[in-house]
Model the fold of this input.
Amino acid sequence: MTQSTYKAGFIALIGPPNAGKSTFLNAVLGEKIAIVSPKPQTTRTSITGIRTTAEEQIVFLDTPGIHAARGKLNRFLVDAAWGAVQEANGVVLFLDGSKYAGNAKALERDLRPMAAKLGTLGVPMAVALNKVDQIKPKERLLGLLADCAALWPGVELVPVSARTGEGLETLLKIIREFLPFSPPLFPEDQLSTASVRFLASEIIREKLFLGLEQELPYNVAVEIESWEEIPEENMTMISATIYTSKNSHKGMIVGRQGQNLKKVGQLARQEIKGLLGGKVHLELWVKVREGWTEDGQFMISLGLGS
Done:
């Protein structure tokens, strides 16, 4: 492919919480850079993932889920998602197809405001109907396609499964059409703009989400306090603080005789070890910071919404 036909640009992945944006990003990159959890609102920052081929370079912006913004933290997350759209050459709206198939009222309720806003931005868009492997019988998918066509006339609708890979190549071909002709924007071997410190903090947060109770993700943040590399030992020494807003949640995170925190630390250390390619010593601390989800300066210091 000649330089004159090469394409490169930014694509924002947006949609309601838990629609599968991060799963898609990890799948098309072939590497895990975004944490994945069955709990909504896992993604809190616009994570950049970079897919480079001989024909194009797609710079994906994986955004926080767009939802009813109650409280300062939620407003930060929603503002970050719409901010990413402003920077993008194209948008892919991810929907949980298994949630909306056969439920036109829920689709209308959840997405009509989003559809109106997207229509005013003038950015090329496709709609990815994700989790089609979970839609049974398949006839329900036809009704969902018709419902989405009514919301977004003329927009490409692509049934996909980020988990199985179904439809992903079709979606990538459509995304290519959104990109301008341009040389690559990043080195071809770069997968993300996120620092390894950020990725380590996200790994810790993911293990918390997967191992703890439903209400905790909204009140938990992770900050890397210290990071020391010891080359002669091929060792990285990491100390991280887990912030929660309630004393009762601190007890749940730590667990009886520290067992919950120990398990989170073990799982996170193993994954961070794979990320860094060397030995890792990880220390975790839990601190209560009441009202942190309403403290704008604190959230900015953690990089939330960026």
Observations:
- The first strand starts at residue 7 and ends at 14.
